[in-house]
Amino acid sequence: MKVGIVANPVSARDIRRVIANAASMPIADRANIVLRVMASLGSCGVSTVLMMPENGGIKRHLIRSLKHEKKLGHVDFPSLHYTDTPVNGSVEDTFAATQAMVQEGVDAIIVLGGDGTHRAVAKYCEQVSIAGISTGTNNAFPEQRESTITGLAVGLVVTRKIPPEIAVSQNKMLKVVKNEGEKSDIAIVDVTVTTEKFLGTRALWRSENFRELFVTYADPEVIGLSAIAGILRPVSRYENFGLHVTLHSPNIAQKVIKVPIAPGLIKPVGVKNFEKISS
Predict the structure, then answer these.
(1) Which of 27, 63, 104, 234 has the greatest number of CB atoms lying within 10 Å of its CB?
(2) Entry pTM
(3) What is the 3-state secondary structure (H, E, C) of the chain?
(4) pLDDT tens sequence across 200-213
């Protein structure tokens, strides 16, 4: 059995460390998460792990730690291999590695990252199941769970000790189409329309510029823009609809709610109305 692992070395490092109080995760911690996952996979009988290559330091830490563990004979780890894909330090690395893993026939892909990393894998994973581990900023999509348990769950499923129909479920997604199909993309949590004119750091926190929000699910206990919808009308991952929220500047809106836009950053958001959406 073969399992893919996509570990993003640069998740949880955007501007929200500056404008909010979001935490960052050291490379050593990310590598240790992968080691815990691999130990769990090995205990279930998974023989091979195929990882995304990177230059952030995870690989060096893993190779050193695996050599040490092998000498001690503590754990029977799966053999570790890397996809033959380029490393550019961008989301293209994740796209290429995911496609390579699918072509190599992995039975599942474990993802370390935030909503953006999981979205990148979901875009190209086809019918391969993914399991998320939260190492990003908002982490609305990957649920908080110890990586040892995630590794065990994946190992039990891919070795058929637990049937996939019991352990695996489908998630909703949003498809964004531009210019009548000229361009398209997906989102697994939310899509926001904003009056911001510049791409900048790709993080949105100026609530006065929000105009529309589309979400696949809405949880009032998560951090990020989807929390706006979660406060208005919670929607579970498994309900067959999402929400469309029309927004306005809190300075002139009749209804204003306070929302955790980022860790430690609570902003007023003006709301016009909201409605259910479905396919």
Answers:
(1) 27
(2) 0.90
(3) CEEEEEECCCCCCCCHHHHCCCCCCCHHHHHHHHHHHHHHHHHHCCCEEEECCCCCCHHHHHHHHHHHHHHHCCCCCCEEEECCCCCCCCHHHHHHHHHHHHHHCCCEEEEEECHHHHHHHHHHCCCCEEEEEECCCCCCCCCCCCHHHHHHHHHHHHCCCCCHHHHCCCCCCEEEEECCCCEEEEECCEEEEECCCCCCCCCCCCHHHEEEEEECCECCCCCCCHHHHHHHCCECCCCCCEEEEEEECCCCCCEEEEEEEECCEEEEEEEEEEEEECC
(4) 556 787 888 999 99
